[in-house]
Write a sequence for this structure.
């Protein structure tokens, strides 16, 4: 790849364990535009490389399917926008409201023993659980006073035992000495494992896009899991997103990660909907499980059952803390992954107070790594056959990033010119939606979401694979025009 030394190191670290030889006739170039994220962590380099590696794997699949080799480019500044793409998502010119993630609970707080903890209560039941435990109201000063009554380790232990979300803020050395840090440090950032034998999976070659006719069934919530499906859809995959109709959700995130997919209500615990899922599974290539640990397995969709029912299936699992170690079943979020691994500590060096990287670095970043893992599995399934398991985790992504904190460039703030350059408009059932344009540029095949985003559950009565929409070669989006209007409904501080 054509890039800096740091970019080449990250590329090697995320791709080497995958065991895939990429098409050498499809070169990757990172366009070295300046970053806007102010952090010593190499956020833009990571995003550009993760996207570029996914592009390399996608181009390799295209070559295997008769589309020939093609060059790939990723704009480094554009890649950084992907890490905050929810902040650049608009409906009819109005920015989608993500205020639930800015609840006062979601913050750093000092403890009795002089340490800090990070809470997450973006969903109401998590927020209420923390406030009930602390016996306080949901205002910053009240939460701070209540937190100072506890030692940090007691809070982490007791709240986690209740299924609530908190962690001690650690530095990288403390994390790597922690049992959970040790457990995930021993595994690659993308785990790719063959879990069942089967014949090599031949490709259909009469396609116009690399992932056309690849069928993906996705059960995942904010934010990493749906980013996997969205990334695959941008390269032609046929994706159905299934969500439980009555579980908590944050509407803007559902829409923003819904590009390229059918959105269906599916209660995986009901007998009728389970039969629908099993019917879809018969022709599914990729099954994404990004729900709470064990939820799909308890509903009858364990790894063993899935691979028994469908040969040569690719299964993706993702969580916060990884699948080894004492925290393997613990719930977590972006903010917690940054805090426990030392990433927030690195980012906050030389600052007056603790702060997070101002981006959904681990959420979107882990989604990009998951998409790379899927395409690597598709390549290996075609060459070796069998079923494959892909595993990614927010804390593993964060741990990797703690090794790359040599960024010294001065950030260049996002301007209206950037928005006009990097955002696109697309008609949808929700009106004109504006979003970050697909960031991977191929020489011939186009990155695009043929199906516009829509509200959760909109395709429940039209449930089935829809390969016609994935085979289009016409761009459905256009350069944005909303920022040329007099009224611009945008808040520049809508990142973490």
């Amino acid at each position: 790849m054509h890039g800096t030394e740091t970019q080449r190191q990250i590329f090697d670290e995320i791709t080497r364990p995958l065991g895939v030889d990429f098409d050498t006739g499809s070169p990757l170039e990172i366009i070295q535009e300046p970053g806007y994220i102010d952090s010593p962590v190499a956020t833009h380099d990571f995003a550009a490389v993760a996207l570029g590696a996914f592009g390399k794997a996608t181009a390799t699949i295209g070559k295997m399917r008769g589309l020939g080799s093609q060059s790939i480019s990723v704009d480094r500044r554009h890649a950084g926008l992907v890490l905050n793409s929810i902040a650049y998502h608009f409906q009819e010119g109005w920015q989608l409201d993500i205020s639930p993630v800015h609840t006062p609970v979601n913050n750093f707080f000092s403890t009795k023993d002089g340490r800090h903890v990070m809470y997450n209560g973006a969903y109401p039941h998590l927020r209420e659980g923390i406030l009930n435990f602390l016996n306080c109201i949901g205002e910053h000063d009240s939460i701070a006073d209540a937190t100072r009554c506890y030692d940090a380790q007691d809070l982490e232990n007791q709240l986690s035992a209740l299924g609530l979300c908190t962690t001690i803020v650690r530095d990288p050395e403390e994390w790597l000495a922690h049992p959970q840090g040790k457990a995930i440090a021993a595994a690659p950032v993308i785990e790719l494992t063959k879990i069942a034998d089967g014949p090599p999976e031949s490709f259909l070659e009469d396609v116009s896009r690399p992932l056309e006719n690849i069928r993906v069934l996705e059960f995942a919530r904010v934010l990493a899991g749906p980013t996997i499906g969205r990334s695959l859809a941008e390269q032609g995959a046929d994706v159905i997103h299934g969500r439980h109709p009555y579980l908590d959700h944050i509407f803007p995130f559902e829409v923003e990660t819904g590009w390229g997919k059918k959105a269906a209500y599916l209660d995986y615990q009901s007998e009728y909907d389970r039969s629908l899922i099993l019917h879809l599974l018969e022709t599914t290539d990729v099954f994404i499980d990004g729900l709470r640990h064990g939820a799909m397995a308890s509903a009858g969709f364990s790894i063993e059952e899935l691979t028994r029912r469908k040969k040569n299936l690719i299964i993706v699992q993702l969580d916060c803390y990884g699948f080894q170690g004492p925290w393997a079943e613990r719930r977590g979020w972006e903010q917690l992954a940054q805090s426990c691994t030392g990433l927030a500590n690195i980012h906050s060096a030389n600052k007056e107070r603790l702060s997070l990287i101002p981006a959904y670095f681990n959420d979107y970043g882990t989604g990009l790594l998951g998409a790379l893992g899927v395409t690597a599995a598709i390549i290996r399934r075609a060459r070796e056959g069998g079923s494959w398991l892909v595993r990614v985790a927010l804390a593993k992504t964060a741990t990797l990033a703690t090794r790359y904190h040599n960024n010294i460039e001065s950030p260049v703030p996002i301007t209206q010119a950037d928005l006009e350059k990097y955002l696109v408009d697309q008609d949808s059932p929700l009106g004109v939606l504006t979003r970050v344009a697909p960031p991977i540029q191929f020489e011939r095949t186009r990155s695009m979401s043929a199906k516009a985003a829509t509200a959760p559950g909109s395709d429940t009565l039209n449930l089935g694979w829809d390969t016609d929409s994935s085979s289009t070669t016409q761009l459905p989006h256009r350069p944005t025009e909303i920022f040329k209007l007099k009224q611009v409904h945008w808040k520049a501080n809508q990142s973490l």
